[in-house]
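Reply to dn_fold:

You asked what the input looked like. This is it:
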Amino acid sequence: MAAEPVFIGIDGGASKTHVVALDGVGRLIGEARGPAASLNGEAAPAWAAIQQSLAAIPALDDLDIANAHVVIGIAGTEITATYRDFVAAAPRYASLHVCSDAHVACAGAHALADGAIVSVGTGVVGFCRFDGQTARAGGWGFPHDDRGSGAWLGMEAVAHAFAAGDGRCRPDDLSRAVMTDFEADAAALSAWACHATSGDFARYARVVVAEAGNKTADALLDTAAGHVAAVARALVGQRADLALALMGGLAGVIAPRLPADLRARLTACTHSAAFGAALMARAAHGLSDGLSEEAAG
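and this is what came back:
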């Protein structure tokens, strides 16, 4: 007698990995969070993080993982060579599909229905599912893209602190808040910034958010919202009825600053990205409908 199928969804990102496992009727049998997994480095560390996350789900202990149907959404799939290495290094599963983390986020947000998402966190990326087609906008990396993101906001705040420090603009609470960590020493800030990662800069987005009400901070947040709106418009186009979900750590700050027509489209996310990946695994086997109440909750 064949073993009952198990559908595993994996959301691998720059900050964490989230895994969801569903049984044959769509019940949630386990989930776990583990270390970051992305394709911005090498394939082997990404698989190590995924395996660690899978091992944290007791319900999978007695499962022959080769019988599982797996969908992985992971950051960095546009890096072709690493993507190929990642797929080539995969364990043996009953089926495996690897796509972008934005793809599974959109699938989860709209429960496989048509819709668009913009994720606003350390980076900014948008994704759309419509009439059987998919499209992406943004998300090409920092500092050359990801405008409106936490990394971008932090970098702009640092630039403002430099300008305030040497007289190009007036010092204010935002510039002083940035300089606090560096004892008002612009050279120390410069030394840090030369080696800072996108995540390092994104920490200063919190300073911008905390200074909301400050003229410069508000201007930066409004500009960030404009960049996010451009990503959203690139996806929704003229599709008047297409829902839009905003997600990520800065979603709550950016949403009220979007233009009114985009705010009117906003809808809450139905499921997590990892759950969306598991739904995609089920859909590939004709099981997209009839989730149990426990699974749909």
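The first helix runs from residue 43 to 55.
Hope that clears it up.
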